[in-house]
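From the shared-data thread, chain only:
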Amino acid sequence: MKFSIFAAAILAGLATAAPTAIDTGAATGPARDELDGNELSTASNPNDNNAAVSTLANTRPPDAPDASGPPVGPDTANQLTGPCRPVTFIYARGSTQKGNMGTDIGPSISAALQKKYGAKNVATQGLNYKAALKGNLEKQGCDAAGIATFIADLKSVATKCPKSKVVVGGYSQGAACLHAAFRGSAKGTLSHVVAAVTFGDTRNKQDGGKFPNFPVANSKIFCDPKDPVCNGTIIVGPGHFEYNVDIAPATSFFVAHLGKVKALDEE
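Structure, as tokens:
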């Protein structure tokens, strides 16, 4: 009974918290905490995470317009099996989101990178993992198979396409997968990653506002002040639905670290 009452109360709050409109192209909207390793939230971690996990079923923000462009679909991208490209973008969607990219943050960043550098110069790969709710209750906040796949994807790019500049991102449970993959990857593999960004990061507090084994200067964690998951909980607040406003600044962060991009056959 306690579980049902607690979960129902949180879900009722979420029903009124979801935004009705999101501008995916402008960095306007609610103020953001952009964590670079020097800022940490101090909120306490509730004991009843098992009850709260049911709220993560609704963590997908409203779908952004399909601006991903070919050959990346609106919610799925599998380009690691294709030819090497100057830029590789790997993205992990949140719990229950569609495809392997979701239909909002990941595809929108991919589209922006393609527009900046040309579609033929950007390879996009969504993390192929279940993204099931129960993954949030695993030790590292992501299911073991998803972590292993992320590590394998990073290693694949480093081995197969060593000249490709890699940028990675993750939302919600996908952010936890990123943290765990960085923790489990070799230093040489991570040396190919030039920037990493997360949104609604469920491992923000646990990892001290940083990504394991990765430079703070190349890291950006977007945390809405109204999003409790950034404080070490898995209770979802209204801010967990509002990260589309951070697509533009996240893309700019990637571009700043990618620098000048040349076709691989020009090097």
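The mean pLDDT is 80.
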